[in-house]
Amino acid sequence: MTNTLYIGNKNYSSWSLRGWLPLKKAGVSFEESIIPLRQDDSQVRIRAVSEGWQVPVLKTDQGTIYDSLAISEWAAEQAPDLWPEDAQQRAAARSATALMHAGFRDLRMACPMNMKCIVSSPQEDKAALADAARINALWSRWLEVSGGPFLFGKWSIADAFYAPVVSRFVSWRLPVDDSGTRYIETMQADADYADWKSAGLAEKLIMVDIDKMMIG
Ligand SMILES: N[C@@H](CCC(=O)N[C@@H](CS)C(=O)NCC(=O)O)C(=O)O
């Protein structure tokens, strides 16, 4: 079986990370093909592999799957333990995943993922800070109910969806309480997250507009 996951630059492409982590956790073997984003030919290259016009895209022998959530659900069909075993916790993890997939736009727009960079002065954008505060409160509640160390106990797809948010909390120096700090440390200690991050840090291509937002 040949699987290929098309992703953007690891340093910047938050949605690619959301599709990549569940495949890793499922133990699915796949090749990676990086399509650098915001280049003259990025869209042509993405459209050549997917009618979705965005990455991540997974090609299997059976066909094409696009969108991080669809790829995650495909991974969970190979490895059902990517969702919690308990039915109520499973529903809660799916809700948390959907919340991230569909929302927190202010945070996503004001604080793009850039794993290489930490701002010198903390982010002050009010709408982004409101999203961050809400996410922190949700993390704390989910961790309290599940007992941690991941949001719903064992690692689940919900953690894939909040992994890029962990990176943003660090890069943009967003305020975080003790429970959120422990979650950030748990994520950073995860071997797959760490592998993705070190590959992102090694990338040479920079996105000037995002770097400028952070460095000025
Ligand atoms: N809802 C999509 C969002 C994917 C998305 O926004 N991907 C961005 C990169 S992180 C993209 O492909 N942008 C197209 C481009 O930059 O040309 C998902 O969950 O996969």
The tally of domains stands at 2
Second rung of CATH, namely the architecture of the largest domain: Up-down Bundle
Q: For the residues shown, what is the average pLDDT?
A: 97
Instruction: Quickly give the structural class.
Output: alpha+beta
| Share in β-strands | 5-15%
Q: State the shape.
A: globular
| Strand order in the largest sheet | 2-1-3-4
Low-confidence parts: none
Broad CATH class of the largest domain: Mainly Alpha
Small-molecule components bound: glutathione
Gyration radius from CA atoms, angstroms: 17 Å
Largest sheet: 4 strands, mixed
> Helical segment tally?
10
CATH topology of the largest domain: Glutathione S-transferase Yfyf (Class Pi), Chain A, domain 2
List the helices and strands in order: EHEHEEHHHHHHHH
The number of distinct β-strands equals: 4
Distance between the termini: 46 Å
Helix content: 55-70%
